[in-house]
Amino acid sequence: MDTRNRKRIGLLLEYRGNWLGGVYYILNIIKALNHLSDEEKPELVIFHDDNSKQFLDLIKYPYQNSVKIEFNNQYKDYIKSWVNRKDFFLDRLLEEELDGLFPVNDMPVETNHNGTIVVSWFPDLQHKFHPEYFTKANLVLREMRLKLLLKNGNNLVVSSEDTKRHFEKFYKIQDGFNFKVLPFVSMLDDFQIPEFSLILKKYEIPEKFFVVSNQFYEHKNHITVLKALHYLKEKGEHITVVFTGRMEDHRNPGYIDKLKNYIEKNNLESCALFVGLIPREDQLSLLRNAIAVIQPSLFEGWSTLVEDAKAFKLQIIVSDIDVHIEQLGEKGCFFSKKNEKELADRILQYWNSTIDQHDIFNSYTDHIKAFGNKFISMFSTDNISKEES
Questions:
Q1: What are phi and psi of 116, to 5 degrees?
Q2: Cβ–Cβ contacts within 10 Å for residue 240, how many?
Q3: Local structure of 43: helix, strand or coil
Q4: How large is the average pLDDT for residues 111-129?
Q5: Is 250 exposed, middle or buried (0-12, 13-18, 19+ CB in 10 A)?
Q6: Gap between the Cα atoms of 160 and 285, Å rounded
C-alpha cells in the first residue's frame, strides 16, 4: 500500500441503529475521493465499532486502514472529559498521528490536537425551528453539546448556506472560527440495481407510482402526502405513492400509528404503500422507475433524497423550504410545504403527463470531483483561517 506523501485523514464511521444518514455521508465522502486521480487520494483511517463494522465491506478504496474504537461509551467519555478537563475520546483517536480527523461532533473541552486538523459536522438546527419534535432533555443536551462545540472547536462543516445562516442567527461565532459549507452529493454508480420487474413483484406494487423515501420522522411531513392522496381520492383519482424508510421515531413513538390511522380512516390502503426500510439497491430501483420523487420535508440540512434524484436525473416534487430551493434552483417542481391541495395538483399533473418536466440535471462527475477536492482542502494548513464558503 503506497501511502507516501499522502495526507492521513481519519473518518468516524458511526452507526447508531436508528439513523443511516451519517453512515451514508461518510461512505459518499469515500466514494468521492475515489473519483480523484491517484496522486490526489489521501490515506484514510476508518474508525468503527461493532455496529458500524458491517459497512466496511461497502468501502472500496485503495489506501485505507480500519481501527476499532468503542463509540458506545462516547457520552460517558464526554462527561468524564468535561469533569477532568481532558478529552479522553479524542485523545484515543489522535494516537493514530493524523493530518485530519472528521467528523468530531463532541468538544467538551479545549484540547491540543498535536498538529491534527480536527473538523466537526452538524447537519442542521432543526431543534431551533421545531422544538416540538424533541424532548426537553434532548433539547438541553443538544444545545449544551453544540455551544461547547462552537466554543472549543475551530472548524465546522455544514451542508448548506441555509444552515450556515441559521448558525449565524442563533449563535455568537468566535473570531477565527472556520465555517465550511460542503453540500454532499450522492454517488450511485457502484450499486447493482435489480431488475424493476423483480422489485414490483417483491414489494407487490403497481407499475405506475410516485415514491417518498425518508425516515418516518414527523418533520419529514408524510401526513401532507397522505392528505393529498385523500383529496385526490375524493375527486375520483386513484394514485399510488410508495413510502420507504425506517418506520420508527424514538422521539415520537406515536407518529407511525397516527399515519396508519389516517390511512385506515380514509381508506387509503391501496394508495399509500408502506414498504419500510429496504435495501439501498431496491430503494434506488424504485426511485429510478417512479413517475417522480416526492420530497415533502418541513426541514432539512441538505436532502439526500434530492441528491439521489439529481444523480439519476429524475423529476422531483419538493416542498418550498429554503434549502430545497438552494439545492434545485429552477429544476424542481415546488409546492407550499403544508398545502396538500397544491401538492395534489402537482401529483395529478405528473400522473396525467400534463406538466412541463423540469430540465434534466447535468453530468455529476465534475460535481463529485469538486466535492472530493473541497473535502481534502479542509485539512490543509493554508485553509485554517475563517473564510467565506
A1: -85, 135
A2: 19
A3: strand
A4: 91
A5: exposed
A6: 27
Q: Tell me if 106 sits within 8 A of 149, measured CB to CB.
A: yes
Residue 219 cell numbers, joined: 418533520
- d(Cα 28, Cα 34) in Å, to the nearest integer? 10
Q: How many helices (H) and strands (E) does the chain have?
A: 14, 14
b/e burial code for range 136-157 (CB count within 10 A of at least 16 → b): eeeeeebeebbebbbebbbbbb
Three-state SS string over 299-365 comes to CCCCCHHHHHHHHHCCCEEEECCHHHHHHHCCCCEEECCCCHHHHHHHHHHHHCCCCCCCCCCCCCH
More confident position, 284 or 360: 284
Judge if pTM exceeds 0.70.
yes
Place of cell 500500500: 1
Q: Is the pLDDT of residue 46 over 60?
A: yes
Helix, strand or coil, per DSSP, at residue 382: helix
What's the CA gap between 317 and 350, in Å, rounded? Answer: 10
CA atoms lying within 13 Å on the CB side of residue 153: 26
226's enclosing H/E stretch is helix 222-234
Mean pLDDT score, 75-94: 83
Q: Which residues contact 80 (CB under 8 A, 6 or more apart)?
A: 88
DSSP, collapsed to helix, strand or coil, labels residue 151 as: helix
User: Is pLDDT above 90 for 74?
Assistant: no
- pLDDT, average across residues 72-96: 81
65 forms beta bridges with: 45
Taking only the tens place, the pLDDT of each residue in 242-265 is 999 989 887 788 899 999 999 999
